[in-house]
């Protein structure tokens, strides 16, 4: 067994805040964990999380080529022993980055065995190591989840599979994953329906599949209550990839699904930037939709590539994007159970271990800048004031009457017949507002 003192990233020491003038690529220029923004430490606003699947398990392969990742600690096996070593790697990285959270799929952390029983045993063994490392470092589990998409048994979906046995297997797997998340004190649990959708409607009973998904989620809620797990359940929308259409396609579709199946009280949304853009939305749009329903829970913080149409899962570096995200989050009063989870991978060409640090440091700094810019926009107040003023006709008179629900169509007709006509009398001032936004970047 590897001893705890063995270093996996010997060239990297604990990443420190050195301020904006630092030229050290392994230092934070903007993320200063204890610095107060709107009276709260940055680390509590941002609640950064590292994803196990990309950062620890990502091979950097693509559709055209095998993995390029150079990971000197890998022994070429997927043994339980190797899984244990990877936990040490993960926690060294988490500690050096000063990231307070991590997230994983069950199969990222422990290998499948020859049957479900053995697989569960493997997971239990690694959960023990995870728990010890959490205790040693103070790092916490943001959320756990089950991988219901990689294994061939899920080719037709999991909860929405045409085969009832696959539904049963998925249920057993999710049961176990929730229990392990509970044991590790996870703040939440995510459902991402990687294959809960279809590739052709010719073979699909859409209504039946969606009902099965609703049923599955109810069973999960029941079990959560049974075992006393108080973490937040999330659905993570994504429109497609790997399927042609996933049922949880965007925030609005998820909210409607949860409402239809009476699950709205038990779920919030975990929104991912690259999924928003795949759905033809901005992240800000997805966030506003979720916030309006009181259902924004957590964020998978990444970004896509403007010129590539798939889920490239890149680390976020655009301060415009992070400012928009932080403006939404500050506006809703901040994250509670959720976090900014870097569901992001380094490029296939960035194959050295140290690239994992550059990537996370860049993402953390980009969000720190976004946080500061968003707080400055709020303090300045002009943007919020503009929006408020834009709706001022609703603050009194006929507007107030409509909003309070006391106006009738008849009355509105009378009102307008008397007035005669109405024309737009104030500009939307988009360009003015874009300039205002830029003042803070
Ligand atoms: C894939 C998803 C996935 C979820 C967790 O596109 O983002 O990584 O976050 O299953
Ligand atoms: Ni994600
Ligand atoms: Ni993704």
Instruction: Determine the CATH topology of the largest domain.
Output: TIM Barrel
Q: What's the number of structural domains?
A: 2
Strand order in space, largest sheet:
5-4-3-12-11-10-8-6
Number of beta-strand segments: 12
The CATH superfamily title of the largest domain: Divalent-metal-dependent TIM barrel enzymes
Range of helix content: 40-55%
Strand content: 5-15%
Number of helices: 16
If you had to describe this structure to a student in words, what would you say it looks like?
With 441 residues, this protein is of the alpha/beta class. It folds into 2 domains: 36-380, Alpha-Beta Barrel (TIM Barrel), CATH 3.20.20; 386-438, no CATH class. It has 16 helices and 12 strands. It has helices spanning 42-46, 52-55, 80-97, 106-109, 116-137, 164-183, 206-227, 251-260, 273-278, 283-292, 319-331, 353-380, 382-390, 397-403, 409-419, 430-438; strands spanning 36-37, 40-41, 48-51, 101-105, 140-145, 188-191, 197-198, 232-235, 245-246, 267-272, 296-300, 340-342. Helix 11 links the parallel strand 11 and strand 12 (340-342). The relative contact order is 0.11. Bound molecules: D-xylose and nickel (II) ion (2 copies). One nickel (II) ion (NI) binds at residues 272, 274-275, 311, 313, 343.
């Amino acid at each position: 067994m590897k001893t705890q003192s063995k270093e996996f990233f010997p060239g990297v020491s604990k990443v420190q805040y050195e301020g904006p003038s630092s030229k050290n690529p392994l230092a934070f220029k903007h993320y200063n964990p204890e610095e107060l923004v709107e009276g709260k430490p940055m680390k509590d606003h941002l609640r950064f999380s590292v994803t196990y699947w990309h950062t620890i398990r990502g091979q950097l392969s693509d559709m055209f080529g095998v993995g390029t990742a150079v990971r000197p600690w890998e022994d070429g096996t997927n043994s339980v022993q190797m899984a244990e070593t990877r936990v040490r790697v993960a926690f060294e990285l988490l500690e050096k980055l000063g990231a307070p959270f991590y997230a994983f799929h069950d199969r990222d952390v422990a290998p499948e065995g020859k049957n479900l029983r053995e697989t569960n045993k493997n997971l239990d063994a690694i959960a023990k190591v995870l728990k010890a490392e959490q205790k040693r470092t103070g790092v916490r589990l943001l959320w756990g989840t089950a991988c219901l998409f990689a294994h061939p048994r899920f080719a037709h979906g999991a909860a929405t599979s045409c085969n009832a046995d696959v539904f049963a297997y998925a249920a057993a797997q999710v049961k176990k994953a929730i229990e392990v998340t509970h044991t590790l004190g996870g703040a939440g649990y995510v459902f991402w329906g990687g294959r809960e959708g279809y590739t052709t409607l010719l073979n699909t009973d859409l209504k039946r599949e969606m009902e099965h998904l609703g049923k599955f989620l109810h069973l999960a809620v029941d079990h959560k209550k049974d075992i006393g797990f108080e973490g937040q359940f999330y659905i993570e929308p994504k429109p497609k990839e790997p399927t042609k259409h996933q049922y949880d396609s965007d925030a609005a579709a998820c909210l409607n699904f949860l409402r239809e199946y009476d699950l709205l009280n038990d779920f919030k949304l975990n929104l991912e930037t690259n999924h928003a853009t795949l759905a033809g939305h901005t992240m800000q749009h997805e966030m506003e939709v979720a916030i309006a329903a009181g259902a924004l829970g957590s964020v998978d913080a990444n970004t896509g590539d403007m010129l590539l149409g798939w889920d490239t899962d890149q680390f976020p570096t655009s301060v415009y994007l992070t400012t928009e995200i932080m403006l939404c989050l500050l506006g809703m009063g901040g994250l509670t159970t959720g976090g900014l989870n870097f569901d992001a991978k380094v490029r296939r060409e960035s194959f050295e271990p140290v690239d994992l640090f550059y990537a996370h440091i860049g993402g953390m700094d980009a969000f720190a800048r976004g946080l500061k810019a968003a707080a400055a926009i709020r303090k300045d107040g002009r943007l919020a004031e503009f929006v408020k003023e834009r709706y001022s006709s609703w603050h009194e008179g006929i507007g107030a009457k409509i909003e309070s629900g006391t106006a009738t169509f008849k009355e509105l007709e009378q009102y307008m017949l008397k007035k005669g006509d109405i024309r737009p009398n104030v500009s939307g001032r988009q360009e003015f507002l874009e300039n205002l936004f830029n003042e803070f970047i």
